[in-house]
Amino acid sequence: MNDYKGLMVFAEQRGGKIHPVAYELLGKGREIADRLNMELSSVLLGDRMGEGAKELICYGADRVFLYDHPALKEFDLLNYKHNIVRLVKEIKPDTFVLGATHLGRSLGPRIAAALATGLTADCIGIELDEEGGLVWVRPAFTGNILAYIRTSTRPQMSTIRYKVMQKRERDPDRRGEIVTRQVELADPVLTLISREALRGVNITEADVIVSGGRGLKRREDFDILQGLADVFGGVIGSSRPLVDDGWIGREHQVGFSGNTVRPRLYIACGISGSPQHLAGMRGADTIVAINADPSAPIFRIADYGIVGDLYEVVPELTNKLERRCSK
Amino acid sequence: MISIVVPIKQVPDMERVKFDTETGTVDRTSAAGEINPFDLNALEAAVQIKEKLGGTVTTISMGPPQAESSVRDTLSRGADRGILLVDRAFAGADTLATSYTLASAIRKLGEFDLIVCGEKTVDGDTGQVGPELAEWLDIPHVAYVSEIKEIGEKFTVICDMEGDRYLIESRLPLLITVTKDINVPRLPAFADKLKARKAEIEKWTADDLSCVAETSRFGLKGSPTRLKKVIVPSQEGRKGEIFRGSPAEIIERIIDAFEEGGVLQSIR
Fold it and tell me: Which class in CATH covers the domain with range A7-180?
């Protein structure tokens, strides 16, 4: 186990653009690497990503392993895995982390199984124990508890949620080494035929979400919520029952079995706040709850709670905010 | 003819299970075990493919003896054969040991063309077992599949990754993990329930797998990740200001509070 040293971050790119979670992981990685006096490296696969590799150094990497090849431009699971596994076996980092994006959560387990090592999913924290060992922190059971997990094999691996770690300020003068690696390609088994942007809302990226629950009387009443969302350029969300009833699409569902969201502002209208719903939105910066029932659990995690009828409160709030904004 | 394997897990009904927020413990007796909801989508997808191409669907679950009921349940929903991997030696497995054990069972099973998994389980919520299983079996996988476009000699599927839809083609054998968007699982017919009640569920132990596996990789022994502790997070540091009264009167106060708290500034 002593042969394994340093921390390695997988840098995801899509369409040539580095996913910001990579910078966040470098931010946290830098902090740990400095405390344990070890190297922070990063691995980047893509096509003509030289500038991207430099960015990773600006954000904290000491060394970037770059795999540059047209065949790696888009996510190619098996070739990504093959080259990363080969690198990890050679460099032997003590720790290897990926962002808990869809790509990271598809690729990470492949690498972990290929190395027969432990992988902890969707972490929101990393702690150091007394001996300088890492402890992964992840929510469990719909976010009701936090589990602290240690790994007995090396490299210890995890996927880490987007928007929980802090990236460092970009330092354009930071020095580091870019190591261009020989790309090994196998015959393609999985062929990407096309990639297109998904239509409709991407609620996980929204800054403002106005959500409706059982307090809504008719499906058309989502229009009232849309009116409030429009003031902020936000999107509408929903609790699970209304999605199950077909009132609104699943892409709007917030909660444990739907989407986990982390907006700046979350306005819950007529949502009582089941643990499953709270699990999906408790990470919002500011939570506003509008509910007629003062004992609704949603009020316990709200910054601003409004006890009242959403059919009176929401239009009035929309009105006043519009006027305030146009001033 | 296609041979499809669907790994499933019995989980507590997460919408009903009682949770003690003081101690951080789950009262598993408070809700009956059911098939992981995402696995129902996987099973439905598998059965639909079988109906088109002909073939078999085999479900495999690793779990305690009571998980037999969930395996039986899959037979009433279109599976042809159900296998329960049940042994104390399997207990305490993390995703690596679980995927290894499932891979061993699938090897013992022999030929297969397609493995369909749910995107994740509602209790573990890792989504790791599917891709890890594919790696142990050395076959490709596509995760987060929301639609199956073409089935036959080649497989084309749509996978959703955040804002992007990828159309991916693969040859078989292949493993896919499916999202809830892929279908609406059918309800079992009464006659099928009756038939399933009488069907035999095969039970395989660690011994039964020893010809295809290193038994030291099973269960707690084969699990590199260990739970060190569990804590119940303290109540979030929220402002918790409550407003009551007539809307006209309180809205002004709320907007003032928003402005004071910097809520509106941070958005614009």
Answer: alpha beta
For chain A, say whether B192 makes contact (Cβ under 8 Å): no
Largest CA distance in chain A: 65
Residue A93 pLDDT > 70:
yes
Question: In this structure, what token pair is assigned to residue A327?
Answer: 């001033």
Strands of the sheet with B2-8, listed across from one edge: A190-197, B164-170, B155-161, B141-150, B174-178, B114-118, B2-8, B55-62, B81-85, B202-204
Examine the domain organization and report whether B242 and B197 are in the same domain. no
Q: So what's the pLDDT on residue B201?
A: 96
CATH topology for A203-326 is: Rossmann fold (3.40.50)
pLDDT digits (tens, 9 = 90+) for B22-31: 666 667 677 7
How far is it, in rounded angstroms, from Cα A106 to Cα A77?
Answer: 8
Alpha-carbon distance of B167 to B56, in angstroms, equals 26
Please state the separation of Cα A141 from the chain's center in Å: 18
Query: Does residue B98 share a domain with residue B126?
Result: yes
Using the beta-carbon criterion (under 8 Å), do B267 and A307 form an inter-chain contact?
A: no
Query: Greatest CA separation found in chain B?
Result: 75
How does the average pLDDT of chain B come out, rounded? 91
Q: How far apart are CA B223 and CA A119, in angstroms?
A: 10
Inspect the interface and report whether the beta carbons of A189 and B171 lie closer than 8 Å. yes
What ipTM was reported for this prediction? 0.90
Question: What residues of A are in contact with residue B265 (Cβ under 8 Å)?
Answer: none
Contact B164, A106 (CB under 8 A): no
Contact criterion met (CB below 8 Å) for B10 and B36: yes
The parent domain of residue B246 ranges over 235-268
* Cross-chain residue pair B167–A110, CB shorter than 8 Å: no
- What domain count does chain B have? 2
**Does A306 sit within 8 Å of B250, measured CB to CB?**
yes
* CA-based nearest distance B244→chain A, Å: 5
User: Please, which residues 124-183 of chain B have a Cβ atom closer than 8 Å to chain A?
Assistant: 125-136, 140-144, 156, 160-171, 180-181
Judge: A304–B258 Cβ closer than 8 Å, yes or no.
yes
End-to-end CA distance of chain B: give it in Å, rounded.
58
Query: CA of B32: how far to CAs of B11, B17, B29, B41, in Å?
Result: 8, 8, 7, 20
